[in-house]
Design brief:
Blueprint (H helix, E strand, L loop, with lengths): L10 H13 L5 H11 L18 H10 L7 H19 L9 E4 L4 E4 L2 E4 L16 E3 L2 E4 L1 E10 H6 L4 H26 L4 E3 L2 E3 L34 H12 L15 E4 L4 H9 L27 E4 L17 E4 L6 E13 L5 H6 L1 E14 L5 E5 L4
Parallel strand pairs: 1-12, 9-10
Antiparallel strand pairs: 2-5, 3-4, 6-13, 7-8, 9-11, 11-14, 12-13
Helix pairs in contact: 3-4, 4-6
């Protein structure tokens, strides 16, 4: 069944969706159930399964399990549960920026369907004895497949059992951080949708939700219905270009050619524009410079865009070359209250342990865990965003 999107989830709802995707996916849920059955402990409960506490030891965890007469066959499961809990707990604490403007969905299918509607045609005047006009409805049928990512994480037995320096937790923290960054990078890549996007050996395709009716997508000066979400010529971040984007979005047209309720809320930039954006958004007086006395917007005039937009700065803002760097000059404006872009989480970070009696685990006393990620992200409706520059200006 297709998902109908009307409002973007709140930060609290997004956290709930993320936690659901982390702990209730088909890879992790059976592990939770097996540990709970054996020990009566839910590994999602940080107090009952305190792997995040200082001084936690996998060796002591095994010794405690032995005292409780837990079968030795459960030990690998316990170790896996410990790593999974570390990954999930640290994953939730990793700071990202994609959740400031995307709509988070906990996926439970290989491919999710979406059916955003562009509303009804406008009411018409009805004369005495005349028939009421029938409304016309236009919408989109979109589908988004979950892709798989992952890596193998090897750890020497001695480090796992006798770690006194916290190296083990530091390495797991990096694994969790990189797992979270996969969706962060994917969101910003799909948002830009330019050719040859890549990061860390991972290639990101352009938007996969392009309707057949659109010739240029997602950024266009001629969307179906008469709308547009970019200027004819890109411009550097400035008071004038921001105001132009605000005006453009507030006059956005849907597929029926009717004005949409687009209310821009966020300014999306890379670290390149952090200082400029802070000046533009927070100056009390106009930052555009002096003008003749009595001229609107001249010296000492109020700043008309003060606090109009929240600044969202990400080091993963792609430029027109398809690369990610802190000097990207790309910037955009978006209505973050609408579910115009979906971050779809099937399996944010699932850990599987290699059989300890085979492979490197047996030959070299190396415990190996496999991290699996399944997710995707893409546009639902680009009419709620405005690209001021793709980084070329």
């Amino acid at each position: 069944m297709a998902k109908h999107l009307y409002t973007r989830n709140t930060p609290e709802q997004a956290k709930k969706e993320l936690r659901k995707a982390l702990w209730e996916n088909e890879d992790v849920k059976p592990l939770r159930e097996s540990i709970k059955k054996a020990l009566g402990v839910d590994i999602a409960d940080a107090k009952a399964f305190p792997v995040m506490e200082p001084g936690f030891s996998f060796k002591k965890m095994r010794e405690k399990a032995m005292k409780e007469s837990v079968s030795a066959s459960m030990f690998p499961q316990l170790e896996r549960a410990g790593i999974q809990t570390l990954v999930n707990s640290l994953y939730e604490s990793v700071e990202v920026m994609y959740d400031k403007w995307t709509h988070t969905v906990a996926s439970d299918k290989d491919t999710e369907l979406y059916a955003p509607l562009h509303g009804l045609s406008f009411p018409g005047q009805v004369g005495a004895g005349e028939k009421y006009p029938e409304s016309q409805v236009l919408g989109l049928d979109l589908k988004l497949k979950n892709y798989k990512f992952g890596q193998i994480f090897p750890v020497q037995k001695e480090l796992l059992e006798d770690d006194q320096t916290g190296q083990m937790q530091q390495q797991v923290a990096l694994m969790a951080e990189y797992a979270k960054q996969v969706i962060e990078i994917w969101c910003y890549g799909k948002f830009a949708s330019v050719a040859n996007m890549s990061y860390g050996g991972m290639s990101i395709p352009v938007s996969e939700t392009k309707p057949s009716s659109e010739s240029t997508y997602p950024w266009s000066t001629a969307l179906q219905g008469g709308g547009k979400n970019r200027p004819a010529s890109y411009g550097a971040l400035s008071q004038a270009s921001i105001q132009s984007g605000l005006i453009g979005l507030k006059n956005q047209l849907n597929l029926l050619g009717l004005k949409m309720a687009v209310n821009p809320k966020v300014l999306m930039i890379s670290p390149h524009y952090e200082f400029d954006a802070a000046v533009l958004m927070h100056s009390t007086q106009t930052p555009a410079g002096a003008a003749a006395a009595g001229t609107t917007g001249g010296a000492f005039a109020i700043n008309p865009i003060k606090n109009v937009l929240d600044i969202v700065s990400s080091r993963f803002m792609f430029d027109n070359s398809g690369s990610v760097n802190a000097d990207s000059k790309a910037w955009a404006i978006a209505d973050s209250t609408k579910p115009f872009f979906v971050s779809q989480l099937r399996t944010p970070a699932a850990v599987t342990q290699e059989d300890p009696n085979s492979g490197a685990s047996f030959d070299q006393d190396v415990t190996r865990w496999k991290l699996t990620i399944r997710q995707n992200a893409d546009w639902i409706d680009p009419r709620f965003a405005w690209l001021g520059s793709d980084g070329s200006v």
